[in-house]
Amino acid sequence: MTIYSVDFLHHSPPFTPQLNPTSHSLHTSIVTCRNPNPNPNDGYSAKNSPKVGVSAETRPTHLLSHDFRDTHLMKLFNRSCKAGKFNESLYFLECLVNKGYRPGVILCTKLIKGFSNFKNIEKAVRVMEILEEYGDPDVIAYNALISGFCKANRIENAGQVFDRMKGRGFLPDIVTYNIMIGSLCGRRKLGLALKLLDQLLEEDNCMPTVITYTILIEAAIVEGGINEAMKLLEQMLARGLLPDMYTYNAIIRGMCREGMVERASDLLRSLSSKGCKPDLVSYNILLRGFLNQGKWDLGEQLVTEMFSRGWEPNKVTYSILINSLCRFGRIDEAISVLKVMVEKGLTPDAYSYDPLISSLCKEGRLDLAIGIMDYMLSNDCLPDIVNYSTILSALCKDGNPNQALEIFHKLAEMGCPPNVSSYNSMISALWSCGNRSMALSLVPEMVSKGIDPDEITYNSLISCFCRDGLMEEAIELLDDMEESGFRPSVISYNIVVLGFCKMHRIDDAIELFAEMVETGCQPNETTYILLIEGIGFAGWRMEAMELANTLFSGYVISQDSVNRLKKTFPMLDVYTELSHSETE
Fold first, then answer.
1. Residue 358, phi then psi, degrees to nearest 5
2. How far apart, in whole angstroms, are the C-alpha atoms of residue 117 and residue 124?
3. In whole angstroms, how far apart are CA 546 and each of 188, 396, 498, 529?
4. Does position 6 have pLDDT exceeding 70, yes or no?
5. What sign has the CA pseudo-torsion 330, 332, 337, 341?
6. For the chain, which end, N or C, has fewer CB atoms within 10 Å of the first or last residue's CB respectively?
């Protein structure tokens, strides 16, 4: 039995089964399980089977050669696999191959997909090991494993499987390339995705599809802007590929995000001549773009056009209108739109209610906000934790912390148990309205309920201490943060630096800055601006501006920052201050 190494598992210990030699004799050997302490340097076993290229459209059916006495075991394998009991399936598969049976590629592929979906990529790899060793994998099986690695954010491993399948004589198909390209694009690695596209174009057996280019266009909009996306669209058209509405909607969305709503509108209205009919998604994207810029007249015209083309506004359309009206302070009109939505037989969801509740709380109309939440509950639309956090923060701000805390402690009964984010919001809200003891009591409470504080919890509490001038407590919490396994970030340090500067404790701020650098936390531009402003407001404005100019010369702070500092500390005042100091 030839032993060789599986390179694509270098990030996790490969499984090295010690299976008995395969034979078709009717022995009753028991399968040996995987080594509980695998050596990461070991390889795994495989048989040198012939290299066979299999297309994505056709799959060979491998019959299991078996004795009738083992039919029951095979039935158990098939049933467990079809029932989604993948751990049992793998056990039965191990038993079967140890008795000399050839595994079928279809069920093995299902196992690989099942383990990948449950993020158990090591067992998916084990199935592939068995398939390579005792059966005949195909392109679809390799695609399933590549997809599993991509879902697990192990793109390097996916690439190694990709190379391995080619090395074993299997030509990747367009599905393989789309999986890899999509994964790279999803991780903002457009450059690598484009290189893979070039590699695809060199292949003889497959060509990019509309899906391939749409994936790349969406990524180009995010990383390079709409102009880069349009270049890919031109390339796509030059290859004779006709974009579908999904492609065009991605481009319309990208144009709107960059504020090019007129250009997006022109594209939408030209689609008919390109053989595409704008759909409701297209109109919703453009409507959001118009309303984000406050172009209500154009938005109204677009809705009229939607009706004329036979498109009825859906839940998303109404939610866009409600959100936009709330953002521009037109809450009563937003409530009217909500009523029309209900009259049309559409059921509002959290996206419809969220902006209304938030806007009403900001305007201090708490009774109406709570009334809307009651209406949600009466219509079987459960408020989410964001809705409750908004209401609770508003109650605290309105001077009703006890009522807020009472509701907060009933969230679990309402089907919305608080999480670390809601605890963070509640702590900050209680502290802001002067209820420091109530806020601090929530910290041990959340820990007792098994909810661990996160970095935001620490930063929120540090900010609260600094805001009240409790700098020693803030420093203690900064130290405790590190002891609890959270390395203080630049945000954590900036909060404390700002606290020291506000109290004109410049020496302490500089000392903390030095400690920050020593611990390997890189200061950002905000850190330096806080120090400069602290020095200036403490009475050393000339020294502050000298430091600003020095940092600007060293490309540490920007010209915009220097300009803002000059407005904060006008040089005329600095020179006046200097002349007074010289005459004393």
1. -65, -45
2. 10
3. 40, 44, 20, 13
4. no
5. positive
6. C
